[in-house]
Amino acid sequence: MIKSNALWQFWIDRGGTFTDVVARAPDGTLQTRKLLSVNPKHYADAAVEGIRRSLGVQSGPLPPGLVGDVRMGTTVATNALLERKGEPTLLAITSGFGDALQIGWQARPELFVREIVLNDQLYDRVVEIDERVTADGQIDRPLDEDRARADLTAAHAAGLRAVAIVLVHGWRFTDHERRLAAIAREVGFEQVSVSHEIGALIKLIGRGDTTVADAYLSPILRAYVERVGSSSGRTRRFSSCSRRAG
Predict the structure, then answer these.
(1) What pLDDT is attached to residue 228?
(2) What is the pTM of this model?
(3) Strand ranges, E, within 49-143
(4) Where would you tag: which of 101, 102, 137, 160 has the fewest CB atoms within 10 A of its CB?
């Protein structure tokens, strides 16, 4: 038996082609709708349009106090990744490892092909951070905060607002990553993804790729969630997929 609720509740699956909306009215009855995900001639956003149609509100702000919960799965981040429409991102990585993510695992999809074409990277710019922590946690080179701040400031001045911080052995010994993240926020970066928070993996490549993807996609997904939350009258809450998985 479906219990009644004083407010409307929505479960939405926004795909690349169609958006499916399941709505539960305050009396417990269920409604379902299928809308084109992209239909600019008729509505700006399919998820919001589904909510409007359920509530019977054609235009203008939604009346407050009607919507209790909106839960949504979406391919917005996946589409941004496939179409390379994420946030321009800076990679901050330990000095000497600036091309580590580009080199990757050196896997050859075609063993005897002589010309290897590397995939384009999600990050737009790299800064190499003067620091080094050994595998047992000893400080081989202290973090050069002045140089790091200057490099981050230059990248911010160039228009970058998202940074992925990936330091060698930073998955376990986190002090340098934490301090670098604090500096990045002081400089003005709006999205700061830190590898030991996103995915504390031992391997640098896997940890780095995951952190870069988080920095690249989180602003896009956050903007969409906030837009839907604002339109539906709900308080916006956001967590990136990679952060939850980590």
Answers:
(1) 82
(2) 0.83
(3) 67-74, 89-94, 125-129, 132-133, 139-141
(4) 137
